[in-house]
Structures are given as structure tokens and as C-alpha cells.
Amino acid sequence: MEYLFWIVITIVIFIIQTQVDFLNQPLNITTVLVFVFGIKNIVKNPHVKGYWSGKGEIKSALFGAIVGLIEDGLSNSIIGPSLLSKALIGFASAYIFTEIFFRWTSLTVASVLALLTVFDSIVIVSLRVLMTTIKINTFLFYEMLLIQVVTNMIIGFLVKLNREEIQ
Amino acid sequence: MSLKDRKRLIIIVTIVILAFAIMTYQYRTQRIFHLKFLSYPFDLLNSISTNIRHSISKHFDVLNENARLKEQVNKLLIERYTYAEIIEENKRLHSLLDFKPSGYHVVAYAKIIGRSYDKVLNLIKLDKGSSSGIKKDMAVITTNGLIGKIYNVHDNYSEVLLLKDNNFSLAVRIQNSRVEGILSGTGFYYLLLNFIPPEEKVEKGDIIVSSGLDGLFPSGIPIGVVNSVNNENVEFFKFIKVIPFQNDIKAEEVFVVTKKSY
Fold it and tell me: CB B121 to CB A81 under 8 A?
């Protein structure tokens, strides 16, 4: 049932991302999707209370890789940039949650999401420019990045974390 | 390094190596893996959601009638543009008594079903593809003028690279003076008309049409109007900004056209 939920959410997110834009710039809510999956799917260590096992990181990285692969496939371009970026974001989401921040607030969620959005866009655009023949307008890239970071931070503030999972 | 950290390192290294191996293979062989099994259902869903959105915003009965009338009006307007350009060309060539008629042939009438998933390029998706006769690099126009060219083609869908994109350029001429140049997208709201020497007379308000010399686009397609001409500090070529006739955000229906074969 949980898998079905994530499949439906993923499809909906992809449709929204194509249909909706903000200030005429595409959104990057798949990063939010992978991030939320990462922090919602951490697995507690059954042997040591209060610690997490590494299974969540593998699961999130795999989910991120699948989302990235779909994203690359849909963009009709080279397969790999989004796969790499999203897989690392999935891994990082679970890792940061369990190892770096132990006290999560809306601000930390939004800030981490902003950083991951910047990472995602830079990795994808850099690899696309490097591996294909396309050119990009740097100013417009920064504009797109700024809008994506702002929208993702707003979404980040709305992400509700289960306190029981955190404590 | 603990066992857990070692596992983490292995995961990261595996992801990076795998991704780079796939990308390098595609880069070296120049073969891009097209995951059609992913894009078809997605395009279908995209198309459905676009249709639902349109249907909600408009009355059902009026919609069909409106679309039919719009198509007719659009065809007539396109004919008018073709005639205007032919008349202009006819006037010029008549004196030479050696003319070749120009124009373009409408391959398909298509609806824009949404923005393409590609976030790097300025692409839009059309609801028609190779099954309707559409091929790569065909020109895409509206009643206002050129909007872009076909970038990717599938059986029932295609993607259009917009005029404003950095990677877009075409051969053009100024309609009245017949001065020829290359028009390039900038990513911004305006386009740049390049390779116009300083001695050529170009004024604000001059209309730019495609020249057809690039071998891709039919000649005479209206593109835009000269917005500003910078003659100062120019060594080789003028700096000319052109505003396109067609605002890509407002377009809903387009025509895919190709050179007319005689």
C-alpha cells in the first residue's frame, strides 16, 4: 500500500511539474519528492535505541535514482545527469536526517531543501552542457535556480515531520 | 572507518561510477537512450490533464465550434501572410523576369499540450508527431509568426525548440530593404539580429522575415520587428534587438510547415 502511495505521488508530481510553472520558470519539485521520501523512510536500528540503520539511505538513493531515470527519460536527452543527482539527493536526505541534524525545524528542512535544489540544478545543467552540445544562458539559469530554490523553500516550510520519528 | 561508513562510501561510489559510465557511453557513441516506454504514458497523461484543464476553463459546446472557426481563421491568416510575401517578392522579381515562387506547405495543425520536461532547453510539446507527417527541423508557426522548430519527434507527439532559446538561430532578411542576416535566440524576451554591417540601413519598426537561405525554414515567415539598433561603438556589425511577433506563452495552437515543393 505504501509503495502504491509513492507511485501515485510520483506520477502526480511529474504531471504538476510539467503543467505548472512559477513566474514562467519550471519547478523542481521532484527534488522535494526525493527529499521527503528520504526523511520519511529512515529505518530505525532495532538493536540500538535512538539510532538508525543504513537501510534508509540505500532505499532513498534507489528511489532517487528511479525518479532521476524517469526525469532523464522524459527530457529526451542524455540518460544520467538527473539519475546521478537525484540518487545522491536521496542518499543525502536520509544521511543528513540521521547523522547531521538531530533537531529538525521547518527552517532546517527549508534550508537543506534549498541546498539540495541548488546541487540538483548545478549537477544536471553542468553534465548536460558537458555531455551534449547545448548552450545555456547563465543569467537565465541563475534566474531559474533562484525561483526553484524559493518555491522549494516554501514547500519545505510546509513539510510536516513526524516528531516521534525524530526524537 | 566503521562498517556503516564503508557501506555508505560504496553506495556513493557505485552511484557515481554507474551514472558516469552510462553518460560516457552515450557521449562516445553519440547514442542517446530514448526511454519511449516512459515518455508515451507520461505524454498521454500530460495530454489528458491539459485537456481537462482546457475543458474546465471553457464551455463544452462553444469549445468545438470555437476551435473549428479558429482553425479556419488561422488558415486564412496564414494564406494572407503567404500572399503578402508573394506579392512583395513578385514586385521585386517582376523586373528581373526570372522569378521562383516561394511559400510554405502546412504539414499539420497541432495543439500545445504543455511545457516539455526538459528544464535546460526552452521546449514545448505538441499533440502531433511523425504519424501526422512531422519531421525534425520543420518550422512551427502561429498566425502571428514563427514560434520555433521541431526538435524531437515521436509517433504522436513532438517537441518544439522555441525561437527565444539560446540554441536557436535562422537566416532572415529585413522585409523592405532585403538586407540579410542571422537571427539568434538569447533566452530573453528579445532576439539578436547578427551580421548586419554598419553601412546597412536598419530602422526601428522594420519587419523581419525568414529568408530560407538556411535550407531549413521556408522563406517569408514573419518573425518579429526591430526594437532597437545600436550603431555606437560598433566595429564590424550592428547590434540589433528584435521583438518576436509571437509570444510563446500565449500560443495555444500552431502549424507545422515546410518548404513548398514545386
Answer: no
